[in-house]
Amino acid sequence: MQQIVLDQYCDGAPLPENFRLETASIPEPGEGRFRVRHIFNSVDPGTRSRLSGGDSYAPALPLGNPIDGFSVGVVEASHNADYPEGTEVYFAGGWRTHSIQSGRGFIGKVPKESRLPLSLWIGILGVPGLTAWFGLKSIARFQAGDRVLVTSAAGPVGATAGQLAKAGGAGQVIGLAGSDAKCAWLVEEAGFDKAINYKATPNLSVAIGDAMPDGVDVLFDNVGNAMINRTLPLMRQNGRICISGQVADYNLSPSDTPGIVNTKPFITHRVRMQGLVVFDFMPAFAEALEAMSAMIQAGDLTYREDRFVGLETMPEAFCGLFRGDNFGRRVVQLDQSG
Amino acid sequence: MQQIVLDQYCDGAPLPENFRLETASIPEPGEGRFRVRHIFNSVDPGTRSRLSGGDSYAPALPLGNPIDGFSVGVVEASHNADYPEGTEVYFAGGWRTHSIQSGRGFIGKVPKESRLPLSLWIGILGVPGLTAWFGLKSIARFQAGDRVLVTSAAGPVGATAGQLAKAGGAGQVIGLAGSDAKCAWLVEEAGFDKAINYKATPNLSVAIGDAMPDGVDVLFDNVGNAMINRTLPLMRQNGRICISGQVADYNLSPSDTPGIVNTKPFITHRVRMQGLVVFDFMPAFAEALEAMSAMIQAGDLTYREDRFVGLETMPEAFCGLFRGDNFGRRVVQLDQSG
């Protein structure tokens, strides 16, 4: 088996040389355990928080430890009757080709009747899709008619959030993305009302204001405080900000992030801002996954994948997330059967 | 009659010379209207927002206009059958001795059976008390067991919020105030578990952390971003910040306020922050006032008043709010019958 471990802590943007590939013998599962052969692994921006060496909210990852992530795979050896050989599972796997699992923690079985591609269970049917679902419905408390602004909209969280809003009767769904191709996809494939290429827009606040002349009910932010600062003055009464992710701020020390400059709209416009950790909603995952699976099968919810092949590509796949290189959910295929 | 009008716009902290006393003849009420003789007027920090000359969220007050505020008074001439002569009312009155009212907008009748002092209807039974009630219950969604930190705790909003939390079974209620006398009152009279004199505390973050070793479930903030920045790292999981007021920031231009520096806890600790405009809850005012009246009569809710006498003292009473001079609700008595 192979795995990727942390070789040096990151200082600012992560670099491929912060990571190291290791080879080991394939482990045997103990009593009650089972071995999963990973088919797809994900790279996730949130992973960055443990790679700076200091304890932040999550403890620092020790040097030499394998990197966290999500995976989908198949049980290939089992001493656990609930997970017999051949079971397809999605789980907190990590950057490796094989792992030993106990069936506890974040793990689910891919429904046998599902005809959807396996990789979706770490994409639109995994943490990104669930983040969009619960961020929009439980944190932003989306209601029909809401005018919704989504940042990092071509990413798997943003694209899903915008489509769920549109499907729920949003008054307007506008996305921000970093290329004309992403913007075209958002409008033509994902059904956004409009997309703005923020890299080609000199004054983004003005562009958002022009696109949303009636203001913003919901800001679904995946980027960070710079986006919140631009949008706060445009918020409507009782507007809501869901802090889903802060990819632009993860590489900065807290004192270097832009912060939130003007908090007056919180009072004057009764704005509510709340952060999200999707695992708080674990008891409701099954229901959300069933609903989103049905929407995908009916053609009402689309997605884009940005696929790499081979475990050794994972560091580069990860580092590119912070440059906005990904166009859709970045998954790494480990096995040609996927 | 007399009234106080805006003579010059304020630049930074308001000064008495920004205001001017005017004398006019007592107006006669037209059809459907009535004249109220003001008995008490309040001075309110939020008034500052209209005194800078630029439109912020509220339009700038035109020079020469009377200053807004809340009042309690008695109807002394009426062409409105709902408000006969002798009716005691609390209302959006302003810095004047008499005013003509129509019965629309924010106005209520002092219950005939009430034996509570009239001035309470612009204090703990007025906007400050209602702000505490709805801020704690509807915005912060206070629950028994919550550990609550209140800033500007000896002011009428903070003192009421802390007592309501305590009465509701808070795990801990800590107040920040600006003098030892205020701190002593908070603990001895208002039943706070502890009060911290922030002016005599070199490292306030450490002092709050020492006083609340298990962290903060609810920050009820009346001060501004400096307090939010100190408290955010101490917030517990699912913590809530109620932005009730930002008195320290009202005199600053948005670019000069400290802003919110580190937003990571919004995600990591699922913090929710929301601002409050109490008039959003107007349909529920009667119920809150009944409950708080009963608590006051039972001795379960106390208050402090900081009384000035004479309309001409209002500018100085108002300006002192921004230096933290007030100890309790600052009301101005216009009439010896109050």
Descriptive terms for the model:
Quinone Oxidoreductase, Chain A, domain 1; 7-stranded mixed β-sheet; homodimer; Rossmann fold; 8 helices; alpha/beta; 338 residues
Secondary-structure map:
Two copies of one chain form a homodimer.
Chain A: E1 2-6, E2 19-23, E3 34-42, E4 71-78, E5 88-91, E6 98-101, E7 107-109, H1 127-139, E8 147-150, H2 156-167, E9 172-177, H3 180-188, E10 194-197, H4 204-211, E11 216-221, H5 225-231, E12 235-243, H6 264-268, E13 272-275, H7 285-297, E14 305-309, H8 314-321, E15 329-333
Helix pairs in contact in A: 1-2, 1-7
- What CATH architecture of the largest domain in chain A do you see? 3-Layer(aba) Sandwich
Report low-confidence residues of chain A grouped into runs of 5 or more: none
Largest sheet of chain A: 7 strands, mixed
What is the CA-atom radius of gyration of chain A, in angstroms?
Answer: 20 Å
CATH class of the largest domain in chain A: Alpha Beta
**Count of domain modules of chain A:** 2
Fraction of residues of chain A in helices?
10-25%
SSE arrangement of chain A, N to C: EEEEEEEHEHEHEHEHEHEHEHE
Question: Biggest interface in this structure?
Answer: A-B, 33 and 33 residues
